[in-house]
Amino acid sequence: MTDYVYDLMKKHHSVRQFKDKPLSDDTVRKLVEAGQSASTSSYLQTYSIIGVEDPNIKEQLKEVSGQPYVVDNGYLFVFVLDYYRHNLINETVDFDMQTSFESAEGLLVGAIDVALVSENMALAAEDMGYGIVYLGSLRNDVGRVKEILDLPEYAFPLFGMAVGEPAEGENGAPKPRLPLDHVFHKNVYNSNAKEQREAIQKYDETVSNYYKERTNGKRQETWSEQVAGFLSGKTRLDMLEELNKSGLMKK
């Protein structure tokens, strides 16, 4: 028994600069197979993965995302919450499954399935020496992404992932996470506000020092400031409407 996988996970950081070197078909296949090996709720396998190789489609997705590495990477995956095949089964059996995959629980099951698949693929890619970055920015315009990828009803794009060999100048480093005893609760949730606030304050100092060191003082915001800036912005308020249009989250 070794700490190899643990050590690999601890090294994780988002890579946003890649060499202009496409992944081989064999590598792509292995990554997808690794994803399929993830746990799936009740064997439902409520996901699909779209490998985007067409430069024109990449450019269109870049317009939605605004991120250059949607195009400049070794390979681009888009992860889809997918009940389309389940709906096809529904049309041929003497049961009514529609309520299940149109429900809030159905949305949670599908989203969890997709997350597990993607993390398996991310870990496999990093084990192969590649870097990855998740692309939640594809949800900037879900309707447009559905059009670009020709998604049917009951299929919803959750996020993308760019994979590739890190560029020579790529010098990312893992960001400090919240202290273990702040996120790991034994038996019951510790909601002591005083203890929580003290832990956040200490973590704010850690994050601020991390940014100062990484940027030579050009950046020094705290974690709380980042969280406040992000969550105070009313972004992607069309999400429920787009989910409904895809046949999801109706109940």
TrEMBL record:
<dbReference type="GO" id="GO:0052873">
    <property type="term" value="F:FMN reductase (NADPH) activity"/>
</dbReference>
<keyword id="KW-0288">FMN</keyword>
<comment type="similarity">
    <text>Belongs to the flavin oxidoreductase frp family.</text>
</comment>
<keyword id="KW-0285">Flavoprotein</keyword>
<dbReference type="InterPro" id="IPR000415">
    <property type="entry name" value="Nitroreductase-like"/>
</dbReference>
<keyword id="KW-0560">Oxidoreductase</keyword>
<dbReference type="InterPro" id="IPR029479">
    <property type="entry name" value="Nitroreductase"/>
</dbReference>
<dbReference type="InterPro" id="IPR016446">
    <property type="entry name" value="Flavin_OxRdtase_Frp"/>
</dbReference>
<keyword id="KW-0521">NADP</keyword>
<dbReference type="Pfam" id="PF00881">
    <property type="entry name" value="Nitroreductase"/>
</dbReference>
<feature type="domain" description="Nitroreductase">
    <location>
        <begin position="10"/>
        <end position="164"/>
    </location>
</feature>
<comment type="function">
    <text>Reduces FMN, organic nitro compounds and disulfide DTNB. Involved in maintenance of the cellular redox state and the disulfide stress response.</text>
</comment>
<protein>
    <recommendedName>
        <fullName>NADPH-dependent oxidoreductase</fullName>
        <ecNumber>1.6.-.-</ecNumber>
    </recommendedName>
</protein>
